[in-house]
Amino acid sequence: MSTHNDLIRLHNVEVRFGDNHVLQNINLALHNDCITTLIGPNGAGKTTLVRIVLGLLQPSSGQVWRENDLRIGYMPQKLQIDRTFPLTVERFLRTAGINDRDSLHSALADTGAEALLKQSIHNLSGGETQRVLLARALLRDPNLLVLDEPVQGVDINGQIELYELIARIRRQRRCGVLMISHDLHLVMASTDHVVCLNHHICCSGHPEQVSNDPSFCELFGPQGAQALALYSHHHNHRHNAHGDVVETGAIETGSVENDTRASDATHTNNTTRNQGDDCCAG
Which end of the chain is less congested by CB atoms within 10 angstroms, N or C? Predict the structure, then answer.
């Protein structure tokens, strides 16, 4: 049985910008050899939480602990480069500060993009661009990958391939992965842990495998249905139009699509338990 070590721990982290309380009472642990997917609506604080993890923003209160040898590889949501600027994939990868050509080839090979080394970055397809961005994130041999919308601008078949690639990299390197998703409907089946964020951690838990839902099988086919999952969990509260927590007396059941209330998670509004710990179970 593999050992999971903490890479980052957030304890009672809060972030305020003036009167705007962006993050409240965040308790989260990220581990090696574990994929954590962060989901939530626009304006939920996902980007702010990622900036805390990356060390780009200090919390207003709370504590952040990082493993001494922590190396983070970051894959941004999108790449915006002036098309008049001539830039090959090789030159783009060298912007990570790694100039050894063998390392560049190895990173591209790990993402299935070794044939793109001399291609212009401007001529890549959406899927090719995401593979190159992922290769750049791997160059420093990270023990934590932070992937912001890694399937942005990719068709559904390409999304499935990228999710499978990320899962394979995690298995081979035993690195931790924090993946941010805006799409609440689809979550990788290989995700170990899902965190639902709406300024605080509403709930978290293991994703459930997609069952024999005919609509998913029809849309994605059998292989696609196995590679994707609906995350089911429950809330004992709801949010009003301003995002504030409104407690409810009963637990409602449904799917992520139906106000993200279902059956398989831990509500964490009034607890200091580190979310992510249960990805180590089993």
Answer: N
